[in-house]
Write a structure and sequence with these properties.
Length: 433
């Protein structure tokens, strides 16, 4: 069979890795795909650098439109990143009837619904395994392997940079800035690392996972997002003492009245699998009603692991090239005309357990007043401890049972107004998984 012709938009960390994997495993990939996968053109900014990697046989351009409009190319692989050029090039590729593979979660989180609709119209595939959790085949697992299940929740460490930073700070005592610099040097971080540390990248990925889990449109703009920049070392230490580890989790969960969609630092039991995911590794837990809990673990970023997912998509495209839409797996796991309009819940209506740290004056009646407010707000205390007082001030730490977030926020507001409270109450969410 004739080779499938690929145009690569971008030859950076992931694009370069894709080139390497396609070459180093060419025979194995051909045996699996049934035909050769051949990169015939690449788009970059720095032509000389690209030439040094791909040699003279591949066309190199600085304008992606040359690739997406090239009639010889069957599949366009978008590995440029961002939402401007990448969107124009992807939309034009689809308009030209080309299949698209992308690792760009920002693009899909913000424009996925329009991209999938256009692709549906043109009968082309849009594959995005690398966009969520790098090398872990989580999209495949959720679209195909778990297709028998009603998914109840998904919780994942889906940003390698923040997991790397939290791990390095904890195990090597590195500062936040040094750990971030290392993550950037290793190629894990986004071009704009605030996307990583503020939780935006994880929310991009989570909004895709929620669509795959619940058959809803991609709704990144409705995700609740908190990053790790305001996380205090003392809360990480208190959590450890209580038997928990702090991880940046993306959580999406089906409730009776809607879907939770949230990214935030979370206390998870130190004995749980997610607590033991270190460095830039990712892990996603999916709970299906038939299968129960399942966990997917692996490298969430980096050159070759991410390329592994890109090439897997290319093989899928090669295998399904001649099939029509009805014989392909739907983009978001559910048939496009069977999507649900289940609402995303406002944060006030989510349910979680909570870690609260209150810095208070150390005098009689303080604990009683706090406990009274929690009780009046229907919040049940699971455990608590008090730090030794320093200069008549002490920290009291509470772990609550599951409560409605709106009730917790209202209680915190009341507690905050008490005259013995010395600084803003710290509130972190706890998941037993
Ligand atoms: P890089 O910055 O390493 O590479 C970007 C590539 O795009 C470079 O080759 C660059 O060219 C090219 N490029 C940028 N702007 C233009 C332009 N205007 N015209 C032509 N070419 C351009 O990014 P990554 O490889 O890290 O990321 C690519 C995508 O993959 C992003 O969407 C990212 O979110 C996603 N991703 C990244 C992962 C990772 O581990 N890095 C993991 C999972 C997903 P030049 O080489 O000349 O500078
Ligand atoms: N910046 C991302 C991360 C790359 O750190 O996980 C993978 O999507």
């Amino acid at each position: 069979m004739s080779p499938i012709k690929v145009g690569l938009l971008g030859l950076g960390v992931v694009g370069g890795g894709t080139w390497k994997v396609l070459n180093q495993n060419a025979d194995e990939i051909t045996r699996r795909a049934g035909r050769r996968i051949e990169v015939v053109a690449v788009a970059v900014r720095d032509v000389e650098k690209a030439r040094a990697l791909v040699g003279d046989q591949v066309q190199i351009t600085t304008d992606g439109m040359d690739i997406v409009r090239n009639p010889e190319i069957d599949v366009v692989v978008e590995l440029v990143g961002g939402e401007t050029l990448a969107k124009d090039w992807v939309m034009e590729a689809i308009a030209q009837g080309k299949h698209v593979v992308t690792a760009n979660k920002a693009l899909l989180a913000n424009h996925g619904n329009a991209i999938f609709a256009a692709a549906q119209e043109k009968n082309v595939m849009v594959a995005f395994e690398a966009a969520v959790a790098g090398g872990i085949p989580i999209i495949k697992a959720m679209r195909e392997g778990l297709t028998a299940n009603r998914i109840q929740w998904v919780a994942g460490i889906i940003n390698g940079t923040t997991n790397f930073i939290l791990s390095e700070m904890r195990s090597r005592g590195l500062s936040f800035a040094d750990a971030l610099a290392d993550a950037q040097r290793l190629g894990y971080a986004e071009a704009d690392p605030t996307f990583d540390i503020e939780g935006v990248d994880a929310a991009h990925k989570l909004s895709l996972l929620a669509s795959l889990a619940f058959g809803i449109p991609v709704q990144f703009s409705k995700a609740h997002i908190e990053g790790i920049t305001t996380l205090a070392a003392e809360d990480i230490a208190h959590a450890e003492r209580l038997g928990y580890t702090v991880k940046l989790l993306g959580i999406t969960r089906a409730r009776k009245n809607g879907i939770e969609l949230r990214v935030h630092p979370t206390l998870v039991p130190s004995s749980s699998m997610l607590a033991n995911v270190q460095g830039a590794m990712n892990a996603v837990m999916v709970y299906g009603d038939a299968v129960g809990p399942t966990v997917y673990y692996g490298a969430g970023a980096g050159e070759l692991p991410t390329a592994s997912a890109v090439v897997a998509d290319l093989v899928d495209v090669a295998r399904l090239l001649t099939a029509d839409h009805d014989h392909r797996v739907p983009y978001l796991a559910f048939q496009h005309n069977a999507m649900a309009d289940t609402p995303i819940l406002p944060m006030a209506d989510i349910q979680s357990a909570y870690y609260l740290r209150l810095r208070v004056e150390d005098r009689p009646g303080v604990l009683a007043d706090i406990s009274r407010i929690l009780a009046e707000s229907q919040i049940s205390i699971g455990s608590m401890f008090q730090e030794p007082a320093v200069n008549d001030e002490t920290d009291i730490i509470f772990l609550t049972h599951e409560a409605r977030e709106g009730d917790i926020e209202a209680a915190i507001e009341r507690i905050q107004s008490l005259d013995f409270v010395r600084s803003p109450v710290t509130r972190l969410r706890v998941e037993e998984l």
